[in-house]
Amino acid sequence: MWIDTHAHLDAPEFDADRDAMIGRARAAGVTQVVLPAVGHGNFVAVRELAHRHRLSYALGVHPLVADSEPDDVIERLRDALIACRDDPRLVAVGEIGLDLFTPGLDRARQEALFVTQLKLARQMGLPVLLHTRRAVDPVLKQLRRAGVVGGIAHAFNGSAQQARVFIELGFKLGFGGAMTFERAHQIRRLAADLPLDSLVLETDAPDIPPHWLYKTAEQRAAGESSRNEPAELPRIAAELARLRRLRLEDLASCTAANAHAVLPRLAALEAA
After folding, report:
1. Residues that bind a divalent metal cation 2, according to the entry (predicted)?
2. Has 51 been labeled as part of a binding site?
3. Is residue 8 part of an annotated ligand binding site?
4. Tens-digit pLDDT string for the chain (272 aa)
5. Distance of alpha carbon 89 from the chain centroid
6. If you ran DSSP here, which 8-state letter would residue 180 be given?
7. Does an H or E element contain 200, and which?
8. Does 211 carry a binding-site annotation?
9. Is 25 helix (H, G, I), strand (E, B) or coil?
10. How far apart are CA 121 and CA 172, in angstroms?
11. Of 3.20.20.140, 3.50.50.60, 2.40.160.20, 3.40.50.460, which CATH number belongs to 2-271?
């Protein structure tokens, strides 16, 4: 049993074949996928998609859209979380966090939205799905203050020391397609060396394709696609199993248990 803890299956890249894509994931042994929202415009979409395909979802405002969200977006998020508080398929608040990589973003607005969303997560008793691109230390600074119940640092690419702090705060670390590139030395070293009970698997579909799907900028400009999807998760996991010298079935059991531990509603959903 494989669990994809982070995939944007409501993305327009899947409009032409969404049902078939989810069917391929199930055929590959991916039994559960967590669908994070990125802004108020897709709160309904991720919830409906999760219910239609027996998946799970999270609600939150992504830092990349912070500047374009309406001024009352936190009120809209609060209302949505309250309306869905008894929905067993709502497993987290996310995708939230900070992005200090993309130029031109309003950092103060990002931070204000992030802090407020952490407070909402604490009030709701929900874990969080974190975006931390070039922002691991500022994210950790806010987490130390927030008192949230844990969550997942999605697409983790920090240091071993930063990883230990996340783990001490009750977080798991998400690894996916980036780990399959031989030149991704830091990510591969972390995947091999961190405690096994701290790791979860993800695709971030349709993004972060593994090396066998990767296309160069020239290929993409020529119209070639590098779309990632959850059906790739077992092959991504095989690379982690090789790095850690584990049997694939043992890795599946461990990473599923880790996902259940950090997302308690997901565990209850899977047990139902």
Report:
1. 131, 154
2. no
3. yes
4. 899 999 999 999 999 999 999 999 999 999 999 999 999 999 999 999 999 999 999 999 999 999 999 999 999 999 999 999 999 999 999 999 999 999 999 999 999 999 999 999 999 999 999 999 999 999 999 999 999 999 999 999 999 999 999 999 999 999 999 999 999 999 999 999 999 999 999 999 999 999 999 877 788 777 777 899 999 999 999 999 999 999 999 999 999 999 999 999 999 998 77
5. 15
6. G
7. strand 199-201
8. no
9. helix
10. 17
11. 3.20.20.140
**C-alpha separations of 71 from 67, 75, 100, 128, 265 in Å:** 9, 9, 21, 22, 30
Which residue, chain included where needed, has tokens 């607005």? Answer: 109
Q: Which amino acid is at 260?
A: H
Any known ligand binding at 40? no
Dihedral class, residue 81 (left if φ above 0, else alpha if ψ from -120 to 50, else beta): alpha
- Closest among 110, 51, 124, 40 to 81, alpha carbons compared: 124
Which contacts (CB < 8 Å, 24+ apart) does range 193-196 have?
Answer: 193/160, 194/160, 194/163, 194/167, 195/167, 196/244, 196/246, 196/254
